[in-house]
UniProtKB/TrEMBL annotation:
Functional summary from the UniProt entry: Possible subunit of a heme lyase.
Transmembrane domains' residue ranges: 102-121
Gene3D superfamilies per the UniProt record, alphabetical: Cytochrome C biogenesis protein
GO biological processes: cytochrome complex assembly
The protein, known as: Cytochrome c-type biogenesis protein
Cellular component terms per the entry's GO annotation: plasma membrane
GO molecular function terms attached to this record: metal ion binding
CDD domains: CcmH_N
CcmH/CycL/Ccl2/NrfF N-terminal domain: residues covered: 7-141
Family: Belongs to the CcmH/CycL/Ccl2/NrfF family.
One Pfam family from the record: CcmH
Signal peptide: 1-18
C-alpha cells in the first residue's frame, strides 16, 4: 500500500511539473488578451481548431509569437493583423467582408434565384393553353369516322 501511495504521489508531482509549462505574463491584462487571441486564431495545420487547443508545432509557434506580441504591448487588432498578414484571412475565425468573401456569399444565392426564375418561365411557356378551334373539331370528327370504318372492315 505504501508503494502505491508513493507511486501515486510521484505521478501527481510529475503532472504538476508538466502543468508549470504555462506562459508567464507581466500582468493579468496580458494573460486575458493572450487567452482571447489564442481562442480566436485558427491553427493553419489543424484547420478547424484554435491555437489554444491545438497540439501542432505550428500552433505552439503561433502561441509563442502571440505571447511575444502581447508582451510588447500590441493591441488585439495589431496581433490579429500581424497573423493575417503572415497566414491570410484563414487564420482568423471572423474574417472581414471583402469583395472575395462577398462573392462567395452572394453568388450561390444569385444562382438559386436565376435557376428558380428559369424554372418558372419554362413552366409558364409549357402551360400555355391552346384554344380548340373549329378546324380542330372537324379534324377530330374525321379521325373518329376513319377509326369507325377501319373497325367495321
Amino acid at each position: 500500500m505504501k508503494w502505491l501511495l508513493l507511486t501515486l504521489s510521484i505521478f501527481v508531482s510529475i503532472s504538476a511539473f508538466a502543468e508549470q509549462d504555462r506562459y508567464q505574463f507581466d500582468n493579468n491584462k496580458q494573460a486575458i488578451l493572450f487567452e482571447e487571441l489564442t481562442k480566436e486564431l485558427r491553427c493553419p495545420k489543424c484547420q478547424n481548431q484554435n491555437i489554444a487547443d491545438s497540439d501542432a508545432v505550428v500552433a505552439k509557434d503561433l502561441r509563442d509569437k502571440v505571447l511575444v506580441l502581447v508582451k510588447e504591448g500590441k493591441s488585439k487588432d495589431e496581433v490579429i493583423d500581424y497573423m493575417i498578414d503572415r497566414f491570410g484571412y484563414f487564420v482568423h475565425y471572423d474574417p472581414p467582408v471583402t469583395p472575395a468573401t462577398l462573392v462567395l456569399w452572394v453568388l450561390p444565392v444569385l444562382i438559386v434565384i436565376v435557376g428558380f426564375g428559369f424554372i418558372v418561365i419554362r413552366q409558364r411557356k409549357a402551360s400555355v393553353k391552346q384554344t380548340w378551334s373549329s378546324d380542330d373539331e372537324m379534324l377530330l370528327a374525321k379521325l373518329i369516322e376513319q377509326n369507325k370504318r377501319q373497325e367495321q372492315s
